[in-house]
Amino acid sequence: MRKLKFALFVILLCGISGHSQGFLKAENAKIVDEQGNNILLRGIGLGGFMLQEGYMLKVPFSGQQYIFKEHVEQLVGKEKTTTFYNAWRKKHMQKRDVDSLKKWGFNSIRLPLHYNLFTLPVNEEPVKGENTWLEEGFRLTDSLLSWCKANKMYLILDMHAAPGGQGHDLNISDRDPSQPALWESQENQNKLTALWQKIAQRYKDETWVAAYDLINEPNWTFEEGKNKNGIEDVDNKALRQLLVKLTKAVREVDENHIIIIEGNGWGNNYKGMLPPWDDNMVLSFHKYWNYNNLESIQQFLDYRKQYNIPIWLGESGENSNVWFKDAIALMEKNNIGWCWWPLKKLGFNNPLEIQVNPGYQLLLDYWSGSGDKPGQAEAFQALMQLAENTKIENCIVHYDVIDAMIRQPQSQQAIPFKINRLENELMIQAADYDLGTDGIAYHDTVSANYHISTGKERQSWNLGRTYRNDGVDIFRDNDGLIYVGDLQAEEWLKYTINVKEAGDYKLSLKVSSESDSGLISVNVNQLETSSFKILENSQGWNWTPPQQVKLNSGINTIKLQIEQGGFNLESLKISK
User: Fold this and answer.
1) 75-106 burial code (b ≥16 CB/10 A, e <16)
2) What family is this protein classified in (predicted)?
């Protein structure tokens, strides 16, 4: 009997250990799990959660969080400002967010930390040189980690705002330029070192914590006469020394977790920083607004080969769906994990869009000088509603962005944006063309921003900056009507519909135009069937005379090809 019990115990123990989750580690230029399986991180960054940047809030003034907070305090006072921030952080990230990310196909989250949620600034310490520990940052991290564990997703801890701030790009780290920066203060460096050791001590046994990203985007020159953001530095000795010090502090309490390092010049300048100094280290780089070709990442591929170290695209985004798809496809083809920025903000080119409530718009108008100052109660209500709007159920979900990141890098197929079933009559909003990349679901003359590579002005792909993140120019009028505009010759839109019964149908388009220059040709199932001449009409929206189209039973595609532009398109109507 004892032998049987022992055997059952061994079987149970083996079963438990066989299903346990081990630490990720760097091994032979790959990130692997405890069984040695290659792990490709597909992640999202939580910008705006612990650390707000002004552009995410659409503010017209300098973008540091502390400046936004000062403006809020001037309107509602310190006590109500604290209430707003408590609500913001409670509602901005919840379990439902993480559940959704898992469902959509992500396997990791990068959490940007603000040091002041974990410890006091050096100039506010009651005892000089000591560290007062705050519980809020750890509590928020613990909650997020619990939701990641429930979904078997990895969490990467990223020091986004270091004590004093790590660069001249002030918004990134909420830096106050009137105070000593991280690189100008030994006290700030000591506090950062102590903080990382405290974090490592707390999470050393957490296997779903994937890595510690020690300093986000350092951008500070250490060499006289060079670009202030460190992109031209060739030594970077001070940065390497601090990263080595931080690594040592972590390793004193935690031998298990991956250490992630970032170069100078917003993470990409590694001159003088290599070779690596730890066996479990990953080299991160950031990528924005440049071409998605092999040349754009070659230096990091070379580092990976030369130093046998994994590389990871730790931050990217803020572009169009075409750019997202191409960049992610490039990463995955070269076995490089990636993390997009951000999950949500007040803007359309991310998975979740926080909606601007009317009260908050009044605050923006006041701050920009185009509106009256609101009363305290009115301003507080607007801010609390903004916090409420950060909840995922109150956000606009941009499925086109998610599709561009997860499905499109693996597929050249267009799929319906919405289900279009035709029995007797079907109305399709023009902006609801198929999901897919440029050349597959649509074509537009400008589909991404490459200004870093071109050296030209930033390119705006969707001129209306609403509804979808493709190159198609989608606008919303004052009454909320959504339409496609700025149509130019050779651009096109494709729609997939499911037809109940084959036969002849009538197709009409709802358009507006101030000239007689518009012309559209219609292709059904890759065959040209008819065309529409768009006539001038100054009375607003009107339906074109119907054209006959022949549709098959089942799946059909309708392609609207712009032969001559100069008009707007709101919807399609198909009827018997």
Assistant:
1) bbeeebbebbbebbbebbbbeebbebbbebeb
2) Belongs to the glycosyl hydrolase 5 (cellulase A) family.
